[in-house]
Specification:
The chain contains 1 helix and 9 strands. It is mainly β. It is globular.
């Protein structure tokens, strides 16, 4: 069973541009709010906190929008260190979502669309996210304390 799970993860990882985490087909939210959010790394049950990334939009997939938000749709500018599930909705075939920082370098595929989930461990420092083909206009960052 472990070998089958590892093989599935490897195959799914390859389909999403070489990320270190397997994508899933779970729905993801996107946000355009500009308020600051601070999210705890785990809830009372010990479950991993989910943060949400998106590129493009449902109404206009090729739009030059990139977002990282909490479950309430608030833009993330700071997070505490810890383990997170990053759910990305990639709406466009001309964009990707790429997150990078201390110990993290995960991305969706430029030509692909759909939802992907990455299990990430955030350490103290600065993290950036961007669309690789459009870095100059599609980017953001946040700090981890």
């Amino acid at each position: 069973m472990i070998a089958l799970t590892a093989l599935s993860t490897l195959l799914l990882t390859s389909a999403c541009g070489g990320s270190s985490s397997a994508p899933t087909a779970e729905p993801s939210g996107s946000a355009s709010s500009s308020t600051t959010a601070s999210t705890a790394p785990a809830d009372a049950s010990g479950e991993r906190t989910t943060i949400y990334g998106s590129v493009g939009s449902k109404d206009n997939p090729e739009s030059f929008d990139i977002n990282l938000s909490d479950a309430g749709g608030k833009k993330i500018t700071e997070l505490p260190a810890g383990n997170y599930a990053l759910k990305v909705t990639d709406n466009a075939t001309i964009h990707n979502f790429h997150i990078m920082g201390p110990g993290v370098d995960d991305k969706t595929d430029v030509q692909g669309t759909g939802d992907a989930t990455f299990d990430i461990t955030l350490k103290k420092g600065t993290y950036a996210y961007e669309c690789d083909p459009h870095t100059s206009s599609m980017h953001g960052s946040f700090t981890v304390s």
